[in-house]
Amino acid sequence: MALKKVAVIGGGTMGNGIAHVFALAGSDVVLIDSFPQSLDRAQSTIAKNSERMVKKGVCAEAAAASAIARISYAAKIEAAKDCELAIEAVFEDLAVKAAIFAELDRTLPKAA
What we know:
The protein is α/β, with parallel strands linked by helices. It is 49% helix and 16% strand. It contains 4 helices and 4 strands, in the order βαβααββα. A 4-stranded parallel β-sheet has the order 3-2-1-4, sandwiched between helices. The longest helix is centred in the middle third of the chain and has 20 residues, at 36-55. It is globular, with a radius of gyration of 14 Å.
């Protein structure tokens, strides 16, 4: 059974790939990045990857479209407030990661 809702923090290569896989598995996903251009790029990459998967016969067009529809995009970690799981996938900067985890601790439900 898929998790109901997952947050992925970081819209780069790793983050958008993680978000896409969770959406393909049936979870609603919120992809969070503070840079709007990163979210735009992530959305475009996910769409291209979905098209490639359909062309290769890896998944049906309807499944790919459903996965894309399950992904939302946000600039603030508050968008993770109702997620069961949060995955951090930002660039390697310990101070940034620590700040993200502190904010997630304040934002996520206790059971997350």
